[in-house]
Amino acid sequence: MLLSSISQLIKDKIKINSEITIGGWVRTKRHSKIGITFIILYDGSCIHDIQVIAYESLNNYKKDILSITSGCSLMITGKLVKSPKKLQKYEIHASKIKVLGWVKNPEKYPISPKKHSLEYLRKVSHLRSRTKLISCITRIKHNIIIYIHNFFHKKNFFCINTPLITTLDTEGSGKMFRVSTIDLKNLFFDSYKKINFKKDFFGKESFLTVSGQLNLESYACSMSKVYTFGPTFRAENSNTNRHLAEFWMLEIEMSFANLKNIMYLAEKLLKYLCKKILNNHIDEINFLSKKNNINLFNKINKIITNKFIIIDYTNAINILIKNKKKFNNQILWGKDLSIEHEKYLTNNYFNGPVIIYNYPKEIKAFYMYLNKDKKTVSSMDVLLPDIGEIIGGSQREHRIDILDQRIKELKLNKKDYWWYRDLRKYGTVIHSGFGLGFERFITYITGLCNVREAIPFPRTPYNAKF
Ligand code: 4AD
Ligand code: MG
Question: Is 196 a member of any domain?
Answer without folding.
Answer: no
